[in-house]
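Re-running the complex after MR caught last week's input typo. The corrected sequence lines follow. Everything else is unchanged.
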Amino acid sequence: MIDAGWISTIMTAARPHAVAALLRHFRDLDLAEEAFQEACVRALKTWPKNGPPRDAAAWLIMVGRNVAIDTLRRRSRLQLLPPEELISDLSDAEAAVADRIDEADYRDDILRLLFICCHPDLPATQQIGLALRIVSGLSVQQIARAFLVSEAAMEQRITRAKGRIADANVPFETPGAAERFERIAAVAAMIYLVFNEGYTTSVAEHGARAALCEEAIRLSRLLLRLFPTEPEIMGLAALLMLQHARAPARFDSQGRVVLLDDQDRTLWNRRLIAEGLALIDKAVRHGRPGPYQVQAAIAALHARASRAEDTDWTEIDLLYGTLERMQPSPIVSLNRAIAVAKVRGPADALAMIEPLASKLGGYFYFHGARGAFLRQLNRIEEARVAFDRAIALANTPAEAAHIREQLDRLAGGGAL
Amino acid sequence: MQYAILCYHDEKVTCAWSKEHDDAVMAKLGVVRERLEREGKLGPVARLLPTTAATTLRKDREPPLVIDGPFAETKEQLLGFYVVDCAGLDEAIEIAKELGAVNPGGAYEIRPVGTFFPGKAAS
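Corrected-run output:
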């Protein structure tokens, strides 16, 4: 009646809760992970026989705790394990724990678990690797594939990250309101990193890396369930959903990049869009805007336009203006220039990005956008130079191919 | 007699489904749904977005209070419903069993419908 696939889904869903509670109990990440693994092994033995427990997380915490305590005892003095039935037959105890551990108790535990992964000493790639391993429970092999590195390299990266965390003092006391807010912000940034790691991809790698985007969405939903009234978390989740909804249309059958304007919008994931729009709607009601909400609002304007020409670029320009004030960055200005080109024309857009050259000179998109504006202004030679520069800086073969196509169009008869 | 079959499941689990698994479950449910439709037994069906997208209006005070999230914090959440028109409770239970066989986990609450307005908005 219950197959292994179903059990593994239940375990995946229970994992953040269970590992987080075990971490609080043992204050040791490796021990918490081992305890969870061991509890899963036992679940695979007993659940098919007795049916899954009503509260899988509580069951895994109970069993994991007992097993780990036993391991600790055995390490100190060799002692025999109690029989399997004694450890796994916990129906009464499980119900008691399930009553005691409600979502509010899990909340700070899971936030701590997530927060550990975004320790400021860890470089971004280690933060992401650690979160995917510990919180999401992806195998090292899966993570290595998503990062396009060898399994050994990823194993080493994760081990190193864990070492750094063990050396750092992880705070176990319940955080105060201000501290909790800081943790939420750090965790949100880490989830966004996970998403971007998966979003920056070419079609050949798309399958393996799309998993990162889906994990990031799952983590954002987890965070939102813990803090259901935080508008920025709603904004983050909405942003990821609205962007990922476009994934099926981002590459054509030959693996070439398809720009937003040219995407087949019928391929967009309508359910993700509906959920993203619902969340941004909810967030706006709070009247506490933030960078994630603004970016989600921009993505929402694209999602709402059933044809590219229906896009409300004036509103997008205004929203980018808001974002520039909240979070000044040359990348934001560059994005705004795309909207400006649509609203006020390429000359204004070009004037806007020229001062960014010193900061974005090594950035693929800067030269790609500059080339496009120049081409629209019929400054063909300059456009060619900009596109050549973009190809040299392309991150993926698909990006380079896309720019080469622009060059071909220049060669084949000037502007558009 | 009309019955609402209210679908409860742990959304942490359903949100952890892979797209392939989700598609497979929906396809199997679709087969049952089509049969019910052919037999003229199927009313409105809805799959709801996760409770993180929900808003609750507490109207037991003045002015009413708008809060984020679902009305009740429960281990399983209301994730969708079917309305079926059938001979009686036995048949409604049979239909629920059939749906449950292709979508295990969680629970179906079978509730007789008192008043029913088909509405026109979604059709």
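None of the earlier attempt is carried over here. Residues 203-226 of chain A form the longest helix (24 residues). The two ends of chain A are 61 Å apart (CA to CA).
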